């Protein structure tokens, strides 16, 4: 048999004659976290129309494909679920807001009048990205939070405060590894412990934080106990 005349040769020859081609149409754009590049990039959302080709010329429609997300930098295509992942910028803002809200909630449980608790909260909030945070600002925000939720300092975590925590933590939690979720809880624990052992109200707030972070109650208890044993 002559070279190129076998089954593989015939298949290759047929592929050069008949094939399919996809024509892409842009249906939107924006910024996303590109898994291929490993960073924030611009994207186009594309829909495609597949066609049979004869000698490279489109002749018959074969149906639609997509939509897909095309990275403007690496040109790779991804499923649209990639847009569910926040950009690096958005993720940083979500994390910063989460730490800030947890700090306020713990202070509202009874630490707003303690200088050491306020100092600990300021350190956590500044580390999260609010560089200009001050003790006076946090104390004023705690008063505003209590007025908005109808909560009195030292009371257990009420519905209003629980809603505030869930609004800040629920969007972030799916994008955090276990260690990241535990870190946020432990930051709240350190604020609570800055002026002495946990109060019942502080434990209640931290339990709500743990639930919003989808940390099981047994692990919340374990983490809070470990934080209490760790010297400040």
Mind explaining what this structure looks like?
Helix 2 packs across helix 4, helix 2 runs antiparallel to helix 5 and helix 6 runs antiparallel to helix 7. It contains eight helices and four strands. It is elongated, with a radius of gyration of 27 Å. The chain has 232 residues and is an alpha+beta fold. The protein has a four-stranded antiparallel β-sheet with strand order 1-2-3-4. The longest helix has 24 residues. The N and C termini lie far apart (83 Å). InterPro entries: DjlA_N, TerB-like. This is TerB family tellurite resistance protein. Pfam families: TerB.
Please summarize what this structure is:
50% of the residues lie in helices and 22% in strands.
Q: Any chance you could write out the topology, listing elements then pairs?
A:
Elements: H1 7-17, E1 18-34, E2 39-54, E3 57-71, E4 77-78, H2 88-111, H3 115-128, H4 135-149, H5 159-169, H6 178-193, H7 200-212, H8 217-229
Helix pairs in contact: 2-3, 2-4, 2-5, 2-6, 2-7, 3-6, 5-7, 6-7, 6-8, 7-8
What keywords describe this structure?
four-stranded antiparallel β-sheet, TerB family tellurite resistance protein, 22% strand, alpha+beta, 232 residues, single chain, DjlA_N
């Amino acid at each position: 048999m002559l070279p190129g005349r076998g089954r593989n040769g015939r298949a290759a020859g047929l592929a050069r004659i008949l094939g399919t081609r996809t024509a892409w149409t842009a249906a939107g754009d924006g910024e996303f976290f590109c898994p291929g590049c490993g960073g924030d990039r611009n994207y186009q959302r594309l829909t495609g129309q597949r066609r049979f080709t004869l000698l490279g010329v489109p002749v018959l429609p074969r149906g639609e494909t997509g939509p897909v997300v095309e990275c403007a930098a690496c040109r790779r295509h991804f499923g649209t679920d990639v847009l569910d992942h926040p950009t690096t910028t958005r993720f940083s803002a979500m994390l910063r807001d989460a730490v800030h809200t947890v700090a306020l909630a713990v202070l509202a449980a009874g630490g707003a009048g303690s200088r050491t608790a306020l100092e600990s909260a300021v350190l956590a909030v500044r580390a999260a990205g609010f560089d200009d945070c001050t003790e006076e600002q946090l104390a004023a925000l705690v008063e505003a939070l209590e007025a908005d939720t109808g909560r009195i300092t030292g009371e257990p975590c009420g519905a209003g405060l629980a809603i505030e925590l869930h609004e800040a933590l629920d969007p972030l939690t799916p994008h955090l590894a276990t260690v990241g979720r535990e870190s946020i809880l432990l930051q709240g624990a350190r604020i609570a412990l800055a002026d002495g052992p946990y109060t019942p109200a502080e434990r209640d707030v931290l339990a709500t934080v743990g639930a919003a972070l989808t940390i099981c109650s047994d692990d919340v208890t374990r983490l809070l106990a470990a934080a209490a044993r760790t010297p400040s």
